[in-house]
């Protein structure tokens, strides 16, 4: 997802409008982005905000198989491996309290949004939930 986000950032910075094809060997990322209604993390939302900016541009996200000797996929894999051995900037460790407060904030946000089922919106008497017995 980071690579897709950086690609879209590059496209926007250099104003490369027209038909754009983004190929990824990560099937899970493509499937995650296809289900855009369920995307709630920051990186996914950044991607969709960039896509909204490119609304007049045709953007194709396509999965390609990995490790089948595709030239540019092999180049991308080798660059990713090089990136993993580079020195990383100092990353602050997360304490229990920081993790707890982040999770609590996510839970609070989820409680503020009403659930999508139609029977949650019934306000009058007689609203019921029907379950079929096993």
UniProtKB/TrEMBL annotation:
Residues 1-85 form the RNase H type-1 domain. PROSITE patterns: RNASE_H_1. GO terms for molecular function: nucleic acid binding; RNA-DNA hybrid ribonuclease activity. It holds the Pfam family RNase_H. This is RNase H type-1 domain-containing protein. It comes from Araneus ventricosus (Orbweaver spider). The lineage of its organism: Eukaryota, Metazoa, Ecdysozoa, Arthropoda, Chelicerata.
